[in-house]
TrEMBL record:
A matching Pfam family: Lactamase_B
CDD domains: metallo-hydrolase-like_MBL-fold (cd06262)
EC number: 3.-.-.-
Cofactor section: Zn(2+)
Keywords in alphabetical order: Hydrolase, Metal-binding, Zinc
Protein name: MBL fold metallo-hydrolase
Residues covered by the Metallo-beta-lactamase domain: 13-170
Superkingdom, natural source: Archaea
Length: 192
């Protein structure tokens, strides 16, 4: 079962998802809390860290996790400090027991990836979209509202309308009609 290890943390952080299975991984590492102990409370080892993007709130714990578990980090852009291996657009990556397709989804940050598994019916949305029609900030460096809208539209075209779970970079995961939340995000991003 996918678990948010940052749930209940009272610090500036992103969500951190532990995906157990054949290839146990962390999706993002968050910041400003003891993630190493949180992982060790649940599992002995992880195989990799998969990054949705490299804003500080998503990678602050990355050095500690890499040291503690002797793992590499995978992300879109290896020119960014801490990213050891590139995940190309449309590349298939194993998380836990399932294969996910990586979708390059800039707009919030140039190196942003969403990860989608049709078989698992799961979307890791990073900071592209959130529950109730919210969407990633575009007022930060590398932010671009037009690119964000294109990225949301691209994800909408790929995911199944019957999607079962959307795990976002902040806030609660969406397990009730997540497709509708992505659709609403696409509408809201166009209105502002």
């Amino acid at each position: 079962m996918i678990t948010n290890l940052a749930e209940g943390v009272q610090a500036f952080t992103s969500n951190v998802f532990l995906v157990p299975g054949d290839r146990p991984v962390l999706v993002d590492t968050g910041a400003n809390f003891d993630l190493v102990d949180a992982v060790r409370d649940r599992i002995d080892e992880i195989d990799a860290v998969i990054l949705t993007h490299t804003h500080r709130d998503h990678v602050g714990n990355l050095p500690a996790v890499k040291d503690a578990f002797d793992v590499d980090a995978w992300g879109y852009d290896t020119s960014i400090d801490g990213v050891d291996h590139a995940i190309a657009d449309e590349e298939t990556v194993q998380l836990g027991d399932d294969d996910y397709v990586a979708l390059h989804t800039p707009g919030h940050k140039d190196d942003h990836l969403c990860l989608y598994s049709a078989d698992a019916s799961v979307l890791f949305a990073g900071d592209l979209v959130f529950q109730n029609g919210s969407f990633g900030r575009t007022d930060l460096e590398e932010g671009d509202r037009g690119a964000l809208i294109e990225s949301i539209d691209r994800v909408l075209e790929r995911i199944d309308p019957e999607l079962e779970a959307m795990h976002t970079g902040h806030g609660p995961s969406v397990t009730s009609d997540p497709y509708d939340h992505v659709e609403l995000s696409a509408q809201m991003a166009r209105q502002m």
